[in-house]
Amino acid sequence: MALGLLLALVALAHDDARTEALAGSNAPASVLKRQALVEVEHLDYEGRRQRGTLVVDASLAKEVREIFAELLDQGFRIEKVRSASAYRWDDLASMKDNNTSGFNYRKVEGTRRLSNHASGRAIDINPMQNPHIGHDRTGAVYDREAPGTLAKGSAAVRAFEKRGWTWGGKWRRPDHMHFEKP
Ligand SMILES: [Zn+2]
Fold first, then answer.
1. Rounded to the nearest whole angstrom, what is the distance from the C-alpha of residue 136 to the centroid of ligand 1?
2. What's the gap in Å between 67 CA and the centre of ligand 1?
3. CB contact at 8 A, 123 and 100
4. What is the DSSP letter of 114?
5. What percentage of the chain exceeds 90 in pLDDT?
6. What is the CA(16)–ligand 1 centre distance, in A?
7. CA of 135: how far to CAs of 1, 27, 108, 127, in Å?
8. CA distances from 88 to 39, 68, 91 (A)
9. How many A from CA of 125 to the centre of ligand 1?
10. What's the CA gap between 128 and 171, in Å, rounded?
11. More confidently predicted of 169 and 4
């Protein structure tokens, strides 16, 4: 009985967190209902263990959990991980705050095409260390030696690639922060 009540309360708390993480999104209901909340642990730039929340398509939740566990083991630094709802879905504000995020119902920068973020099938990591070359509006500088930077052949990039994700850092106009699995 007591355990049942506890489990019910935990489920309610999770529902509240999910509601908050999706609040104010202009995505269609069919897209919203596919989004899952993934609680991750990460090392911040001071080396402290932190908890963060990512929103991704439910079919990717398990492997995203595995990838972030691997990044934690590697000692890879991630400044913060919040749903873009914390920035009212303003991607520029999220990037300037160096936030790592997944789902955001938005277009590809400079186009009318929906981004893979719009379906929760893309994740941006540490935007201030990993700029999108040619589209950057944050003033971020790419220095592959700086903590939290994604680089060709690095363990952090491999954690995604070995699970079938594509890294934007290899594109003609590198989007260093971006991983996707359409
Ligand atoms: Zn992206």
1. 12
2. 17
3. yes
4. B
5. 88
6. 26
7. 56, 24, 10, 12
8. 20, 24, 9
9. 8
10. 18
11. 169
Cα 74 to ligand 1 centroid, rounded to whole Å: 22
Q: What is the mean pLDDT of residues 83-98?
A: 97
pLDDT of residue 1: 60
Task: Return d(Cα 68, Cα 74) in angstroms, integer.
Answer: 10
**Region at 10 (left for phi over 0; alpha for psi -120 to 50; beta for the rest):** alpha
Which tokens in the block code for residue 75?
A: 């000692």
Compute, in angstroms, the gap from residue 177 CA to the centroid of ligand 1. Answer: 6
Going from the Cα of 13 to the center of ligand 1, the distance in angstroms, rounded, reads 29
Checking if the pLDDT of 147 tops 80, the result is yes
- Please name the helix (run of DSSP H) or strand (run of DSSP E) that holds residue 35, with its range, or none: strand 35-43
- Distance, CA 7 to ligand 1 centroid (Å)? 35
Q: Are 76 and 49 in contact (CB under 8 A)?
A: no
The Cα 38–Cα 178 span in angstroms is: 18
pLDDT at 157: 98
* Per-residue pLDDT, 7: 84
